[in-house]
Amino acid sequence: MSEKAPWITYRPELKVLDCTIRDGGLVNAHQFSDAFVGAVYRACVDAGLDYMEIGYKNSKKVFPTDKFGPWRHCAEEDLRRVVGDHTAAATGLKLAAMADAGKSDWQHDIVPAADSPLDMIRVAFYAHQVSEAVEMIRHCHELGYETTANLMAVSNITEEEIDTVLEAIAATPASTMVIVDSFGYLYREQIDRLYKKYAAAMAGTGKEVGIHAHNNLQLAFANTIEAIILGCNRVDSTIYGFGRGAGNCHTELLLGFLRNPKFNVRPIIEVIQHQVAPLRKDLVWGPSIPFNITGQLNQHPRTAIEWTEGPNRDDYLAFYDKVVSES
Amino acid sequence: MSEKAPWITYRPELKVLDCTIRDGGLVNAHQFSDAFVGAVYRACVDAGLDYMEIGYKNSKKVFPTDKFGPWRHCAEEDLRRVVGDHTAAATGLKLAAMADAGKSDWQHDIVPAADSPLDMIRVAFYAHQVSEAVEMIRHCHELGYETTANLMAVSNITEEEIDTVLEAIAATPASTMVIVDSFGYLYREQIDRLYKKYAAAMAGTGKEVGIHAHNNLQLAFANTIEAIILGCNRVDSTIYGFGRGAGNCHTELLLGFLRNPKFNVRPIIEVIQHQVAPLRKDLVWGPSIPFNITGQLNQHPRTAIEWTEGPNRDDYLAFYDKVVSES
Questions:
Q1: CATH for A10-281 (3.30.390.50, 3.20.20.70, 3.10.450.50, 3.20.20.120)
Q2: How confident is the model at residue B100 (pLDDT cuts 50, 70, 90)?
Q3: Which residues of chain B lie closer than 8 angstroms to A292, CB-CB?
Q4: What residue ranges are annotated as transmembrane (chains A, B) (predicted)?
């Protein structure tokens, strides 16, 4: 038996991306106050996080401004209003935004990196959109951004589709290929398989593998740890697990696990208490029976989200019977 | 890469013990109505579970009946009032009770197994109590019970202490040696180490290794899965995670993971909806910031329990500062 205790040491190259505003915004149509976004930003800086994903760079046609808040589009003036003259050099924090294939006017809406507080564009796409994703990555890279490739809903596609996507992304300038468990379906042995597959496909390219887990089965943190153990150096989390449906790997749990002394959990606990936990008065997220059920069945969480927002939200049995009978 | 998918097959020898009443009773001093205990019992039978731990066999002197409900003592007449003429042969479910070293009048309070609906006595003990635990196991075995050895708070003792306990238990008639993460502190690599250590110490004795996880870090289910992957065939869970402090591995999540068709999650969801979830009106359990903090620091959850029951329960930052300053 090894005498080593890897759980009390750390890898300096492991970087944390907090996507509270981006993923949590899916719960409230990104209708956050500037004060809220600013508090999360300061918490990320003070906690020593590496990246903060502050929203989407999505189309105002697809997501009109009368229904969606500014963090769905991340217009430069909205960013500047909250983060001022932010620079990564001054704060240690890089800012990221996510652009979806099929939902973004990326050819027009993304300004050169030198003119933006954003440092990174994360390109989210489904397998069938990989060709657009490759174009987006190249375009954003040419504009001066670090880029990542986030293949969504990986639990719902075939091995051949995954392999084809990985081959296409390996040839791009993306810095990171992210394992995304959109439905919160994956168990640890599946994380192992995917990590090894992704890492093998990226070998020799200099790319990192990332992990973005959802908490339907209370496994977001555990699956993130598993990926880290295997070598994953880019990990996503959200403060208090705030995110769509069952939510995400909790930033405060992740920082408790990571032993890099540059991280400090106290500012995260502070922003939870004053900003994020109070959202529970009006918003619903986190693991619950409906999300357990859709996760176990490898389904998109939308039916569970509708149920938990409806009048029968506590009728777990009716939801179970409905989902089982319809599947 | 292996083509096998172990997560969709099952091991028939893997047995589930639901300890909702026993561990959940630590939240309300075991003051359950007979109707509640009966509903949990029927759910366990209907779900195809292997064992139900219905309470403690603890001393009425240490836990007086004016403060503690009947499931702290599991008097035979209380058991019979709820489970009637229960037999394992008729229901497929074996009933268990836990007896603590140092807190039980085990020499007098435990009747022969032939006269009780109980099939199993689980002996809980701290390392320094191992000699009494060995006597308890032998005594209960002679009375006709299956027995287990549950070494508590394993994260807080030395390797030598663990080794000494394992050697002592290996020589007893206990059927199972249980890994107990009382403080909800263990990460996956530590579970691996402990499982391998426990399994090696029990090799050749015919004993199984069990796992009892707490959910302080949202890892109870994940750590249970990890132990199962390694070969653990005796796993504890509670319905809706109901249990002391941060609670336990959720029975409904565990049954969703296990693929043995004899298990049925629907009765568990039903009893959650009608019996367990409504307890949340008056009782507090489950992972939250205070339990995250004590878990990360390898502390007993008692300070977090007091805090979550007190007037400042939402002042996470004050709790963090208090615990950090006192540690």
A1: 3.20.20.70
A2: very high
A3: 250, 252-253, 256
A4: none
The chain A residues in contact with chain B (CB within 8 A) are 1-2, 6-7, 187-190, 193, 196-197, 215, 217-223, 225-226, 229, 250, 252-253, 256-257, 265-266, 269-270, 272-273, 277, 289, 292, 296, 314-317, 320
How remote is the C-alpha of A41 from its chain's centroid? Answer: 16
pLDDT digits (tens, 9 = 90+) for A95-148: 999 999 999 999 999 999 999 999 999 999 999 999 999 999 999 999 999 999
Return the beta strands (E) in chain A as ranges. Answer: 15-18, 51-56, 94-100, 118-125, 146-151, 176-180, 208-212, 234-237
Look at A189 and B1 and tell me if their CB atoms are within 8 Å.
no
Question: Which CATH superfamily groups domain B13-281?
Answer: Aldolase class I (3.20.20.70)
Domain ranges of chain B: 13-281, 291-326
Q: Do A188 and B226 touch (CB under 8 A)?
A: yes
pLDDT of residue B1: 45
Contacts across the A-B interface (CB distance below 8 Å):
110
For residue A323, the one-letter residue type is V
Backbone φ and ψ of B31, nearest 5°: -95, 65
pLDDT band at B42 (very low <50, low <70, confident <90, very high): very high
Higher pLDDT among residues A2 and B210, named by residue: B210
